[in-house]
Amino acid sequence: MSVVVWDGHTLAADKQGTIGDLRVKTTKMVRLDSGELLAWVGGQEEGMALENWYVNGCKPEEWPESQNAEGWGKLIAIVKGRAYEYEQLPIRQSVQSVPAAWGSGRDFALGALAMGADAVGAVKVACKFSTTCGMGVDSFKA
What we know:
It is built from three helices and eleven strands. It has a single domain (3-141), classed as Glutamine Phosphoribosylpyrophosphate, subunit 1, domain 1 (4-Layer Sandwich). The longest helix is centred in the middle third of the chain and has 12 residues, at 44-55. A hairpin with a 3-residue loop joins strand 1 (3-6) and strand 2. The chain has helices spanning 44-55, 106-114, 119-129; strands at residues 3-6, 10-14, 16-19, 22-25, 29-31, 37-41, 74-79, 82-86, 93-94, 100-103, 137-141. It has a five-stranded antiparallel β-sheet with strand order 5-6-7-8-9, with helices on one face.
C-alpha cells in the first residue's frame, strides 16, 4: 500500500512497505539517468518489475507476468513534465488531471492538494491519516 502524488512540479511518495502486519521502510521511486521519474504503488516486487520493464525499453513482449495476476502494481512515469501511468497492460496512459494521486492514501492526498498542499505536503497528510502509508517521504522535482 502506498501513496504517490504528482503536483505538476514534484513527484512524491511515502516510504512504507507492508508485509502482513509488519511495516518496513522502502523506496518507491527513482530518477533515471534520462531525467525521467518513476514511482509505483502496489507491491514492491511488482513495482521493481515494472521499473525494470520500463528501463529495458517498454517492450510489450517483456511485460511482467505479475501484472496479469491479482496483486498487480501501477507505474507512474514523469517524462518531460508530463505524467503517464501503466496498469495491467503495457499501454502508456496519459494522466489528464493534475495534480494527481495514486495508491491507498490517494483520497487523503487529493483532499490535501485541494486545500493547497504541494506533493510533499499531500503525502505527509496521507501518512498522517492512512494506516497503509508512512515512514517518511521521498520526492523529486521534475
